[in-house]
Amino acid sequence: MTIILTFDIEDWFQVENLRPVIARSDWPFYQLRVEEHTYRVLDLLDSIFVMYRSAGVHPKIKATFFVLGWIAERLPGLVREIHQRGHEVASHGFDHILNLDFALDVVRQDLDRSKKLLEDISGSSVVGYRSPNFSVSNQILEEIQRNGYLYDSSYNSFAVHGRYGKINGLTDIPGSISKIDQNHMYELLISNLLLGKKVLPWGGGGYFRIMPFTLFWLGVKKILRDQGSYLFYMHPWEIDADQPRISGLTWKHRFRHYINLDSTYGKLSRLLKKLQDHNFLTCYEYLQECGLLENNLR
Known about the structure:
Blueprint lengths: L1 E8 L24 H21 L8 E5 L1 H6 L1 H9 L3 E4 L12 H19 L5 E2 L8 H9 L4 E2 L17 E4 L3 E4 L5 E3 L4 E3 L2 E3 L4 H6 L2 H15 L1 E6 L16 H8 L5 H11 L4 E2 L2 H7 L9
Parallel strand pairs: 1-2, 1-11, 1-12, 2-3, 4-5, 5-8
Antiparallel strand pairs: 6-7, 7-8, 9-10
Helix pairs in contact: 1-9, 4-5
């Protein structure tokens, strides 16, 4: 039973739900709040580690942090801290672009720029990528592989969401992984709940904030029983209850962004405590444990 914790490191004003009222050109004028709340996540993982060790269970809790290059450029110390605490630094692109909305040469530049920057800052290879808003396709996956990434974690099978991309030709591997065609490139799938033929969004993010904890936990247990692993994602801004409230949003965007910000940290802590009998691995470690990648990270 393996838990793969992933965190997308972007700030509150870069979220797609706020894009209608916050232009990319205005980002430098907003307060950076992501550092404080990423440290809260890091400290929570450390505290859960101490709790587990005191209880005599496995002492390792590692996560993968998909860091936006724009943030890394301004907060290099945060990237180094993530790496020094033993977590995996992976790429979330540079400018938080929706890849499906841009020409491939723009996507290629974004992929390359973020990878090189994160490697320079962390001093370690960056081999994983997650597309903002899960905006991915087979063509984009080819660009991801050409840029030297060994795995992607951008596919969310909850097709009802209009911004999520689609991938064809995935070869199923037990657990949370698929192989992309015949290439040595792997897709770590966002974990969703399958009830009959219906896919329900259960991987984290806004769905985690909205659902009552008991219901969410029951779904996680079913996914673990059925698949043997569970991949969870969220953002530090989702535990930032004091972030600015922006006017001019539609009710839908306002609801999606601000719902339950004040209770999500507690829910995350509760979820981690419930999972004390499970293994916590980074994305890269999980692929290694499954025998799919060699240990060649520097």
